[in-house]
C-alpha cells in the first residue's frame, strides 16, 4: 500500500469512527430511554417537573440518567440557590446498575467495528482507529448538556454537570473504551493473519 493510499484510508477510518461515535451516543441514549422512561414518567419528581415547566420532560430526564451512567452527576437547583449533585442510577433502586456497563460496551464495540473495517493488524493502528470514535461521541456529549437542560424557576436549570460531561463522558469514555476496542480488534486480526495459510 502506498503512503498516499494509507493516508486516504486513515481519513476514511477517522470519518467512519466519528460517525460510529455519534451512533454509539444515540444508541446508548435510546437504550437508556427504553430501560428507564416508563419509571421516569410515573415518578413524582417527573410530575413535579411537568408542573413547573408545563411540558413533558421525560426525554430530558432520561438524558440525565444516560450521563449518570457515565458517572456524570445531574445538578439540581435547591430552594435557596445551592444546587445538589445527584446520580439517579445510584440513588433510584428501580434503575438497573447495569446502566453503568452500557457506555463502555457500546464504545468497545464501536472501536472494534472501526478497526475491523479498516483491516488493521497492528495494535497502534488499532488504537488510533478505535480512538476515532471520540470526535462524534464527544460532540454529542457536549450538545447533550444543553439538550437535556430543564429550566427550573426564573434563573435556575437542572442539567448534567457540564465539566464532567465534557471531560468524562465526552473524552475519557470514548478515548479509553474506543481505543481498547480498536486494539482488541487489531490483535484478533493479526492472530488470524498469522495462523491463516499463505
From TrEMBL:
Q: Does the keyword Membrane apply?
A: yes
Q: Which Pfam families match?
A: DUF7978
Q: Where are the transmembrane segments?
A: 12-30, 98-119, 131-150, 162-188
Transmembrane as a keyword of this entry, yes or no, is: yes
The record places domain DUF7978 at 8-188
Arranged from A to Z, the UniProt key words for this protein are: Membrane, Transmembrane, Transmembrane helix
Official protein name in the record:
DUF7978 domain-containing protein
Please report the organism this UniProt entry assigns to the protein: Haloprofundus marisrubri
